[in-house]
Write a structure and sequence with these properties.
It is built from 7 helices and 10 strands. By secondary structure, the chain is α+β, with helices and mostly antiparallel strands. It has 2 domains: 120 residues, Trna Endonuclease, Chain: A, domain 1, CATH 3.40.1350; 76 residues, no CATH class. The strands form 3 sheets. Strands 1-2-3-4-5-8 form a 6-stranded mixed beta sheet. Strands 6-7 form a two-stranded antiparallel ribbon. Strands 9-10 form a two-stranded antiparallel ribbon. A hairpin with a 4-residue loop joins strand 2 and strand 3. It is elongated. The C terminus is likely disordered.
Length: 245
């Protein structure tokens, strides 16, 4: 029996061999669910849900709803016990990959050294007709959104909240162009630097609105001295991210 942890790393290799240039991000929040893997290609975000032989379908319908809103294409990767009936539980445009433990051809036995999976593409994914560009844009951070605005000659919309800004971008930029723009930003995202980018963006925004509540006011430490408040960067867990070559 293969567990989730046995599947992920070999799955990355399988997908990279199939798609070439791509980047893998793990455990990304999407609505009320969490995507196991987001694969970024040059013009698409792929949502990938893993259901090992140990997993049930208890939460799958809700997860499918969120994947449908956020990603251009979707895959479900299933253990062999699910392969025969998973198609009944996901939309017809979802891709399906079955995974089984590798077998020693000479002896007809499961390889004993470690759990090595074999992957079988049962169905190719098609374009998702239900993706919502605004939802997909919400996976990007403010500095990344601003670069998209600049490249497409958009106004800055300095006073808009993020939700309204996403609406503006989605309505202003044609989606075929926006798909490539979003992929370009995630290919270049550097998790060691993005915190600084977000802080610079925040300070720049506040400098234009000095009276805005929630600015860079210092707060007191236990000693009574004021100290600078550090930015809080809320990031989904990224176990492994591959930047495009």
């Amino acid at each position: 029996m293969l567990y989730d942890r046995d599947i992920r790393e070999p799955l990355f290799d399988f997908l990279e061999e199939k798609y070439g240039k791509c980047r893998m991000l793990e455990e990304k929040i999407m609505g009320s669910s969490r995507a196991d893997i987001v694969m970024v290609t040059e013009d698409s975000f792929y949502g990938i849900e893993i259901k090992s032989d140990r997993d049930s379908y208890a939460r799958l319908s809700g997860q499918v709803w969120d994947y449908e809103r956020f990603f251009d294409r979707n895959y479900v990767v299933v253990g062999s016990s699910h392969a025969g009936h998973i198609a009944e539980h996901v939309p017809a445009h979802w891709g399906i990959i079955s995974v089984e433990e590798a077998v020693n051809a000479a002896e007809g036995a499961v390889l004993p050294s470690r759990k090595t999976p074999d992957f079988y593409l049962l169905r190719e994914p098609a374009d998702n007709p239900n993706v919502e560009p605004q939802r997909k844009l919400s996976l990007l951070w403010r500095p990344e959104l601003r670069r998209i605005q600049e490249r497409n000659g958009m106004p800055e919309y300095k006073r808009l909240g993020k939700k309204r800004l996403l609406e503006k971008i989605a309505s202003y930029v044609d989606y075929p162009i926006l798909r490539r723009e979003m992929s370009a930003e995630l290919f270049e995202r550097d998790y060691t630097k993005i915190g600084g980018e977000i802080e610079r963006y925040r300070l720049e925004t506040l400098s234009r609105e000095p009276g805005k509540r929630g600015g860079v006011l210092p707060r007191k430490s236990k000693s009574g001295k004021r100290r600078r408040r550090e930015p809080e960067l809320l990031v989904s867990r990224v176990v492994r991210g591959r930047r495009g070559k």
